[in-house]
Amino acid sequence: MSDIRADFSGPSVAEAGFGDYIALLKPRVMSLVVFTALVGLLVAPGSLHPIEALAAIIFIALGGGASGALNMWWDADIDRVMKRTANRPIPAGRVAPDEAMALGVALSGFAVIMLWLATNALAGALLAFTIFFYAVIYTMWLKRATPQNIVIGGAAGAFPPMIGWVAVTGSVSIEAALMFMLIFMWTPPHFWALALFMKSDYHKARVPMLTVTHGRKATRAHILVYTVALVPFALLAGVTSIGGPVYLALAVGLNLLFLMGAVSIWRRSEAAAQEDGYRAEKRFFRFSLIYLFAHFMAFLLEAALARLPAYAEFAASFSLLGGA
Fold first, then answer.
1. CA-CA distance, 195 to 192, in Å (whole number)?
2. Which pTM was predicted?
3. 109-159, pLDDT tens digit by residue?
4. Which domains can be identified in the chain, with CATH numbers?
């Protein structure tokens, strides 16, 4: 699949506003980074001083934003040909590519060093690796090289709760690993569902998304396979120190609904999907956002309930793995 970067010279640059530089940091993606990192930090055993905790979340957020800026710098050529990204600051001509690159590099260095100083070296190293993975391994290499781009690249979005955990504990545990795996395995069905009804954009940009290289039928099958593989990780988290009866009850219901949605998508013919405007696929995509948010909210709820002695003793009987 040919690279269209060589064809991209970029439009002339108009004067950028403050909002354009904020847009470079991908605030929607950053909100997910902040939320999952905050959960990882709050459910970890031990605690940070509130100022340290706030600083840690700010620096993790800045690291996520730096990744977004580097991604937009590198992908400006394909962003300009995709309807949903054509108005981003670089392809729209409001920010120069070199400015975006400089912002991304500067924020990356600042965020990593400051997180290290505010918490510990391992947290800083994990943030550095996350930025490198997203900006270089995923954006510069995998995204244009393989239809498995979103599978491997999904690791970048899965690190924030682990970084939050490590910021408190200074080490990685099974709980942190399971939060990572929950996001890592969730990412492919989430993005492939989007790709099912956004295929024309990816095809036009010559990005080898699975829908482009293997077709929608194969993509539907992959969504089902990865959804099935996701379920054990979601449920296993419930029998660790961050889980408990409330989380398990919610996880069972959510995963049953998610599986039913994946099966429904797998069974659908392309003709039926086109006829109703990919209604089921869009519904599955929207539910996938609720699915992830609800799991991490349940982790927070379990942490809050664990402050009640009677509930903590009851919940402890569910903990078979790990331990705080």
1. 5
2. 0.88
3. 999 999 999 999 999 999 999 999 999 998 888 888 888 788 888 888 999
4. 19-172 (1.10.357.140), 173-324 (no CATH)
